[in-house]
Design goal:
Helix 2 (133-148) crosses helix 4. This protein has helices at 77-81, 133-148, 155-160, 162-183, 187-190, 200-226, 339-342, 398-402; strands at residues 34-38, 43-44, 47-50, 64-66, 72-75, 91-95, 100-101, 113-117, 129-131, 230-240, 243-252, 256-264, 271-284, 290-299, 308-318, 322-336, 351-362, 365-374, 421-428, 436-442, 447-452, 458-463. The strands form four sheets. A 13-stranded antiparallel β-sheet has the order 10-11-12-13-14-15-16-17-18-19-20-21-22. The chain has a four-stranded antiparallel β-sheet with strand order 4-3-6-8. The chain has a three-stranded mixed β-sheet with strand order 5-1-9. A hairpin with a 7-residue loop joins strand 19 and strand 20. It folds into three domains: 34-205, no CATH class; 270-423, no CATH class; 431-483, no CATH class. With 484 residues, the chain is of the alpha+beta class.
Length: 484
Amino acid sequence: MNIPLNKIIVAWLSCTSLFGCGGDSADSATDQKVTGKLIDGYITGAKIFMDLNFNSQHDAGEPSTTTGANGSFEFTKETISAQPCWKHVPYVAVVPVGAIDSDTPNTPVTEPYKMTFPPLSFKNSTSEVYVTPITTEVWNGANSNLHLDGLEMGCSELVSDESKVEELKQLVAKEEDKVMEKYAVSSLNLYSDYVASGNNALHTKAKETVSKLKVAFENETTLKAGNPDATYVRVSYFEDDGDTIRYQHITTEDGYIRKYDHVNSDDLTNVITTETHEIMRYIYNHDKTIKLESSYLLDDRTTDSNTYTCVYLENYKQVGSGVIYNIENHASSAAIADMDECKTVTLASNPSRQVLGVRLRNGNILTNKTRLMYPNGGFHPQYSGHFTLGNNPDNISHTVLNSLSFIDVDFYSEEGHGASAWARARYDYTQATNYLVKDVHDENGQWARGIEYFDGRIDRICGDTEASLDTNPPVSNDNDTCNP
């Protein structure tokens, strides 16, 4: 698949303060050092560290330094030489109470906050490393998706497995595109020293972002104290249809991920209501070739009452590229009061549907997907015995999953294989004006297109033919009859 140049973040290896000229190899760290600045205005007195395990916390053994005048910092040649993955890990800065911001030099910082920078090898620039609120949005989004996807990432994996580097590069590229669209900046300005260049508009936007980073840091600190077994905690704020949403993500030591979407007050101080609460977990079979994604989802967007709908899912899927198969087993129940009650929903007592699927992946890129759906507690007769698998990926074999090869992966196929409903999807990442175009058609002859733009906006288009998707206007986002 050909990906446009604007979607590829390449490592720029040249004679700069970041990537030195000494040695026989571009990967040699012998004569290299990392220099840069921490910027809201220029921040003096902050700690910046290499986040070797991607948890956004400064752990023992992670190299650190303190920012000096004009926010400057340096990781020496000796420090770099001791870290084989120094180019592939993020850099995190913690701005403490008492630090000095050059925008307000006579008033020390009174609220701590955190800023981040993506792995240096993905930085599309030859300048120093400028850690800013803008680069923070890039990395925080990528890192959150990394944890949500259950990707194991750390120094040892990145050094030994090039595919991990590519996965990480794609996550960063997607977030970079979103932030460029949001702030209307080029890839070079995304990583720029906007103070030195006099980019007042970007400087103003960055300061607006810092106000949210401060509230997020306070909330993260509280969550960490209440969840001592958490290995990753993130809080962020965004706007959605006029509401201020607080997104909350906690990963615990036992592998569980807890996500919340809260509708917040405009001043970010109070939660008005919780829209969704999801608990997820990813585990693998004994040889890590089958992945189980299990989750409880509590969602109030499907009802007008004060209760929730609960959906429990176990998705057993093969790992790899090419043609790969999966079986999804769903249970659901309405009028649920809270997550504790949601956890009582089981596949045995509340079966809702089984889904048989096939995906076509070109490397790490999903290109086609087919789903055969057996709703209302139904099953495919051959796979009814694979509905309650005890939440254990070792309870299903590749022989069973490979037997799904009867499913036609061709996007234009209309074969339903006896399912009550089916859908076929095609994914296109090659368009210059957006991140993704997803086309879907189903057993009713209905077509839909979802267009995901770099700034996070999504257009939905409905039609009765593929050609109509090119001419029909987008529908309202609250139109549930068209949902690609």
